[in-house]
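Subject: Sanity check before I submit

Could someone independently write out the structure tokens for this chain? I want to compare against mine line by line before I put it in a report. The sequence has 749 residues.
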Amino acid sequence: MAGKRSKKDTDKSKKGLPTNAHIIRSGEVEQQLITDTLRENYMPYAMSVIMSRAIPEIDGFKPSHRKVLYTMYSMGLLKGGLVKSARIAGETMKLNPHGDAANYDTMVRLSRGNEALLHPFVESKGNFGKAYSTDMECAASRYTEAKLAPIAAELFADIDKDAVDFVDNFDATSKEPLLFPVTFPTILVNNNLGIAVGMASNICSFNLEEVCETTIALLKDPEHDILSTLKAPDFPGGGQLIYRREDLEKIYDTGRGSVKVRSVYTYDKANNCIDVTQIPYTTSIEAIIAKVTELVKAGKIREINDIRNETDLQGLKITIDLKRGTDPDKLMMRLFASTPLEDSFGCNFNVLIGGVPMVMGVRGLLDEWIAFRMECVRRRTYFDLAKARDRLHLLKGLEKILLDIDKAIAIVRETDEEAEVVPNLMIGFGIDQVQAEYVAEIKLRHLNREYIVKRLADVSELEKIVADLEDTLKSKARIRRIIIEELQAVAKKYGQPRRTQIIYATDIVEAEEEQREVVDYPCTLFFTREGYFKKITPQSLRMSGEHKLKEGDEIVQTIETTNNHELLFFSDQCSVYKSHADDFKDTKTSVMGDYIPAKLGFAEGEGARYMAVLSDYFGFMLFFYENGKVAKVEMSAYATKTNRRKLVGAYSDKSPLVAMFYVPEDGEFVLTSTSGRRLLVHTGAIAPKATRSTIGVQVLTLKGKHMLKSVTPYVPGSLTKESRYRTKSLPAAGAMPQAEDFGEQLTLL
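---
Independent answer below. Compare away.
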């Protein structure tokens, strides 16, 4: 009967699987240290992600990028027409088995249509989505077509000349390059983002011409100032980069830091609307519209009637309809401050160097690329040399045949067996087996003097080539010259103007805060040596007890004022931070107060040193330095037309600062040096300066290693003989104090 087992089959089944069979250690719970679990399970996974997936290498590519591009190169897509993207994604499966969808997504980002790269390596046809929009997704791979862009030729120029190592693919059925022998520093030309385990990489793009120019300059002079040629990052979407030299120097030196990029807009007066045509690389159209809409709904922005996405085939466009009477520039300044229309690009130049992840600055990356490229050129040169030597060797054997063609023909004709032809030629002309094989394969029609003479004409040329290649291998200078010529050719052929404009931070007009009604009332301000601030009303102060302070801290400034006064907090790093008394809540003596560096967003390690309270920008700031100089800076130097919260270069850093004071009008100060001398100075004798970072004028004359030790405002009457410490001209050394100058009483014996 069908489906019924025979007794014989049943017996075999029972014999093959005994009834007492069991899985070894089934149901057991194994105790394992967490460190062992991490080492055996987690670490291999983490290393796989870091080494084989997320972090780019010195050629500027991650493994997924490299597999897609090399597959397209192997398909002959550097030349010829476009092919279906689905075919490319399928072929890439031979190198990357993670699925055709993953391969297609990788190719999309490399394409021109996606606009994610400054110099895309893939020409595209069809809908490839847009990097600046989360809603504009690419079409399915069966609907789009692609091929390699002309610039991709620079990735594969030397790949067939043993310039780089090849390794087995995942199933050892084919070979793929470990790196691309790129002819220019692609690592800095295109953006690259990778998120690994415990680390990440985020490399911004730079202008191709500037990168090539900088690399050439470093090849000629390793001490070249990079900032003089590599001006700033250049992003595919354009925008305006806010130039701060200190920020760029940090990125160029360390590989970490950030730059701010804001959108580009135009005002359409006829339609009373703003057209945003370029946005920061780090954001999207949808994120901008969502944030602006949120501010409008919350009532924080009242000048906007509508905002919409009008992006079309002409390019990106966000349109903002304005209410009548709205100043478009002032509105955009406010939007820059509160929306992704201005955003930061955080740099993290983490690159695999020799299989080790390393965070490097621009100079370090270019140095590593130069070393890598020199090795590629050296290997290519050695490959060409080997080929030239082999060709020359064959022609040297052919040269001996020229001496007696008839003899060669006779040897071949009189040889009985085919296998003996090569040995007989070797014996007859004194040539080796390789040369004899080459001669034996020559067609009969070519055994004439004209053919042989033409071939031998190449001997002298090959000898020159061999000598030149040998000289190249011996000379690093020649290899560097070759790289320079290649870089110049790439810059000339593929260079393009900067897309991202550079604007200087000092030229930016920041958003003005909305005017708010400030309730004015008396208050007392307290500022401590450690940087804590308290604002206390008179009523609360009368009912309060002792001040609560951090251990070791003390109050250094107590100022009675009103709530509408402006506050300037000077830091110990030559910066000043602006605020208002109204920005701080009323408090009591029983609390420690606001910590100013945290409240105002000081830089890491920056402390608050002095508080100036003012109703307007009249008066002066006095800065006393250890070298005896005093700087008198007009307060108008700290006034700004815009609402800038931080000013750098608030005072000079040429000498250590001893003290600073805000004086509405000129007065007298007592200066004491480490030698004990005192000088009574009237600030009216010091010429004021409009420059904040002025080094000041010499007021106290110092001898030897002595320096200014302390400065205090002079209290009239505290010196009985004031004339001893005054001087008609500055600088002066001052006088040594005497007991009678301070009105001290005689003591009883």
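---
OP: Matches mine. For the report I'm noting this point. DSSP finds 19 helices and 32 strands in the chain.
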